[in-house]
Amino acid sequence: MNADVRVTVLAGGVGGAKLAHGVQRTGADLTVVVNTADDTRLHGLDISPDLDTVAYTLAGVVNPETGWGRADESFTTLETLRSLGEDAWFLLGDKDLAMHVARTAHLRAGATLTEVTARLAGALGVRARLLPMTDDRVATLVDTPAGRLDFQEYFVARRHADEVLGLTYEGADDAAPAPGVLDAVASADVVLLAPSNPFLSIAPILAVPGVRDALATSSARRVAVSPIVGGQALKGPAAAVLASLGHEVSALGVARLYAGLVDVMCVDERDADLVPAIRDLGLEVLVTDTIMGAGPGRERLAHELLESA
Ligand code: FO1
Questions:
Q1: Is 45 helix (H, G, I), strand (E, B) or coil?
Q2: Which atom of ligand 1 is nearest to the CA of 152?
Q3: 177 pLDDT higher than 60
Q4: Labelling 211: which of 74, 88, 134, 305 has CA 20 to 30 A away?
């Protein structure tokens, strides 16, 4: 019904995937620009967790309990790796491993991440454009009291329990936006900043040279959805990271980060009291139920965001 409305979603993992799924269900012409600074290499394989989370979600094959990985998964290969003495701490299912094997093979043969992503997402049946933020290597490094950690070491191996003292998006300054990314931000009708972690998911995308400017000067209506509801993160360490980096843990704290980059801040009904302060930042505010459950809830939120735009 909205096939002529071009919507670009800036997304990290699970929250970004759910919102993109909602937009897909509205029938809009969807492009998703995905964080790749969580990417890692394990067992010799190139793993792009956020790209895969979005692809699996849009294809309808994601594990509904975790929001990442595949549904109806088995772990025979991982268990066998462990029996061979390998340190297999990152849960890679057998079906999921096939994705990493194929990605790694194509990258080693000289394909770009953009090309491999289009090919694999297409094979899964995804019709939306799925774009990595860059084809270059960018890595989020997390400074903690235990030292500097690779992202997945911080996030999965140590269960994001360490205090975050600082973040570095290594390689970002020298990275180029992937083909299509700047155009998707500059010339969409609507750009949505998903309720993903502002520092761990959205900031790495904005750190790729050109992306922040493209968003700031885009002709699109730009709407950000707060990942903080009632002072708590919807998922993961967003609240802890905001607090430890000195930001207010609220939708207002998130709005301060995005002021100047978006037109509209979408906050949950529980945060309606923050509306005047967010308006004072020069932002319009959409107040609604931002909790996305399964498909219908995602589509409802996407409809409201597109209507407000
Ligand atoms: N998250 C976890 O908490 N534990 C895991 O073992 C894990 C494995 C995993 C494998 C493939 C994949 O695509 C994602 C995976 N995730 C896992 C999620 C992922 O590491 C994070 O949610 C994102 O990087 C943060 O956006």
A1: strand
A2: 20
A3: yes
A4: 305
